[in-house]
């Protein structure tokens, strides 16, 4: 009975932590799109995450500081994500940021609820991991199609929702790992696991954002180079 209560309490704590984490990430991303320019979101995101190392290191003395480091990392992730929307010129509305974040939080809460009530941690983690993988593929597919020439004007409006949903699902993957480590292991400090996971989430999401933006820059560069070559050929022919 003690193990059950402890596991259920840990599940609620993880769900609450993820809710706060996603709220701060969504809020940080939305606000940053209003004030940041070009790649500045990533620069400030890195700075905030470096600051988060301090409370994480001090968390051994007071575990509450792990919440502070996790919150700072959430803001840093939001700042990094904002760089994608700023550089590509994709508008990020509050609805496009908070609705996908809320939906992902609901999925994570449901996972912890099922584990706390029925047990079978490995079974539910495997099932939800497969589901999340499929959702990432689906949201990424919608994200790419929304920018394609075949997509209608109305379909373009889905792009901000699909892209932020994809980012949110990536963050959820890290919390799934934390859940797997924390639940059923009362000797582990759950808040410390969450803090560690938030650092990993920042690195991966920032790398994804940089890769997407860089790919766009490369494509633009190729287009410019092709146009320049064509102009030179026309001049030579004349």
Feature tags:
238 residues, mainly alpha, 8 helices, disordered C terminus
Structure description:
The chain is globular. 86% of the residues lie in helices and 0% in strands. Helix 1 (2-35) runs parallel beside helix 3 (64-88) and helix 5 runs antiparallel to helix 7 (159-182). The protein has 238 residues and is an all-alpha fold. The protein has one domain (2-237).
Q: Could you say which structural class the secondary elements and strand pairing correspond to? A: mainly alpha
Q: Level of helix content?
A: over 70%
User: Which geometry do the CA atoms define?
Assistant: globular
Number of domains: 1
Order of helices and strands: HHHHHHHH
Tally of DSSP helical segments: 8
